[in-house]
């Protein structure tokens, strides 16, 4: 089987603190009748359930993983942060950063999430599978070395990449982040390094504002190896695919990585409550197909994706399934229940033209 899928039921049991959506409880903020943080286990659980019902699991190498060990975690996070996280976790949970709460045992489940990403990365880097998907939870792309935020407690993809490097499997890598929010954690970890090209496509002005500016290109040895593509609200599939063809694919091809990693958030999807980018499940499938084709062209097909955001419990499963269909070329499909309706709500001709012009202008600046 050419596609690996790494998951663990225990990641669905991760819980945050006392929140009502993104607002801490207290004062006039009332508890919600059902659920708290938008980063709910149900998006992931329903994704996994849909896979079982359609039968696509028969075409995947379904695997678990051990938690990332201390040595792996310390390749990215300082011991002081890990010690404090473990202490608070053992004492019943709490919050060490902005919008990043956790319950008792949060340290262990975050290490497990990083372990799933690490196992998926290793399987791809060593050729055990051609490509892989890690259903990692909690997510990771907002977590800076010593500062969790945005539901992210450990930097899953960076931990996985640095372990693959330490084991001698890869040297140069790309992290492509199409989560709707800027990948500030990944950016900070690699901002001054030339061995990792980081590219973030995100909704301009969304979380974490004001990060993610196009002008932030890296520093020192990493100058030029960080690319932020802030896109206007309502960009839609045409804009994302144009950004891939005009900027992302040429930049990755020129960098010549050993492996491509994707921070795969589904919060750019049409019904997501935390953004307004209007992508359908089909758009995520098409983006995956194009990056998969690029990986086959330049790095032996080595492509790994880690689950990040996405907060529509109904729609995330269809977006995830579309990605797996593209990765595995499975004939087991999950027809998109919203595709037809939202395909008719893509940007009008004027908005689409303005977005294309913006992308072309960014491409010209990168080429100059």
TrEMBL record:
- Describe the family membership recorded for this protein in Swiss-Prot or TrEMBL: Belongs to the histone deacetylase family.
**Domain Histone deacetylase per the UniProt entry, residue ranges:** 38-326
Gene source species: Sulfitobacter albidus
GO BP terms in the entry: epigenetic regulation of gene expression
Q: Which Pfam families match?
A: Hist_deacetyl
Protein name (database record)? Class II histone deacetylase
Q: Which domain of life is it from?
A: Bacteria
Hey, what's the signal peptide range on this chain?
Answer: none
GO MF term list: histone deacetylase activity
């Amino acid at each position: 089987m050419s596609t690996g899928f790494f998951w663990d039921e225990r990641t669905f049991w991760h819980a945050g603190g006392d929140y009502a959506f993104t607002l801490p409880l207290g004062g006039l903020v009332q508890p919600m009748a059902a659920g708290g943080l938008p980063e709910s286990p149900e998006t992931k659980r329903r994704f996994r359930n849909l896979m079982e019902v359609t039968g696509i699991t028969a075409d995947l190498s379904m695997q678990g993983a051990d938690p990332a060990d201390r040595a792996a975690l310390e390749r990215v996070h300082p011991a002081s942060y890990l010690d404090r996280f473990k202490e608070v976790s053992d004492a019943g949970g709490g919050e060490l950063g902005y919008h990043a709460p956790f319950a008792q045992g949060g340290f262990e489940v975050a290490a497990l999430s990083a372990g799933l990403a690490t196992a998926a990365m290793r399987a791809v880097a060593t050729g055990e599978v051609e490509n892989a998907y890690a259903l990692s939870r909690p997510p990771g792309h907002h977590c800076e070395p010593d500062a969790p935020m945005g539901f992210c407690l450990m930097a899953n993809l960076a931990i996985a990449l640095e372990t693959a490097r330490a084991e001698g499997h890869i040297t140069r890598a790309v992290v492509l982040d199409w989560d709707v929010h800027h990948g500030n954690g990944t950016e900070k970890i690699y901002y001054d390094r030339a061995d990792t090209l980081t590219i973030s496509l995100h909704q301009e002005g969304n979380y974490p504002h004001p990060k993610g500016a196009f002008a932030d290109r890296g520093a020192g040895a990493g100058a030029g190896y960080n690319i932020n593509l802030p896109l206007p609200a309502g960009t839609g599939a045409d804009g994302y695919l144009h950004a891939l063809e005009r900027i992302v694919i040429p930049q990755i091809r020129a960098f010549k990585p050993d492996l491509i990693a994707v921070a795969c958030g589904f919060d750019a999807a049409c019904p997501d409550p935390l953004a307004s980018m209007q992508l359908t499940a089909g758009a995520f499938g098409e983006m995956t197909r194009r990056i998969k084709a690029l990986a086959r062209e330049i790095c032996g097909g080595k492509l790994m994706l880690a689950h990040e955001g996405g907060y529509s419990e109904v729609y995330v499963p269809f977006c995830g399934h579309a990605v797996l269909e593209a990765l595995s070329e499975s004939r087991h499909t999950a027809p998109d229940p919203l595709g037809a309706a939202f395909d008719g709500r893509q940007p009008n001709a004027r908005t689409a033209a303005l977005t294309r012009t913006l992308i072309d202008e960014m491409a010209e600046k990168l080429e100059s």
